[in-house]
Amino acid sequence: LAKTTQPISMDSYEGQEVNITCSHNNIATNDYITWYQQFPSQGPRFIIQGYKTKVTNEVASLFIPADRKSSTLSLPRVSLSDTAVYYCLVGYSSASKIIFGSGTRLSIRP
Amino acid sequence: NAGVTQTPKFQVLKTGQSMTLQCAQDMNHNSMYWYRQDPGMGLRLIYYSASEGTTDKGEVPNGYNVSRLNKREFSLRLESAAPSQTSVYFCASSFYEGGEGSPLHFGNGTRLTVT
How many interface pairs between A and B have CB atoms less than 8 angstroms apart? Predict the structure, then answer.
């Protein structure tokens, strides 16, 4: 199973760009990298998924270097509503390999 | 389009009581999952159903049973509740068991307290 390591918490300010890095040294060839966002009292919500290089959608960008041993979620111009826990997941070849770690608790200040 | 619906939202049980958590999805997804989340922790997979008619154990299956009633519904049963099962339970679904373009869609959880 591909284990991930990400910071426990991060702080930033409104309007800033936030980058959350996830390490996954033993990622397998077929594994995808997926990020979820979770607000208090809600289930996680899918943000973005990628395999290599860069993926961008209306919410975030995901940067994956050539060796794929890490990835960076980039949130442009954050607002207070981006305060949440962010989970990095690696895998997806079967449900039993979908492992949620403790995530990164992101706090945005005015 | 409701997505993933879980009932009930809150439940308090006494030790030894039984109950069933209900989950339904209206996205025509093939795969469904049950997770538990303890305070300050990530989610742990209890059971999953890759497709209608199949169920498999996840990371923490002890003390639980599941039923994939049909393609839409996946229930989780606690036969004899214990205080260690106090947690928030999330149901999720995905179009396939895994792979590109098949992210998990979660319900808003059932908050269970066992006294």
Answer: 69
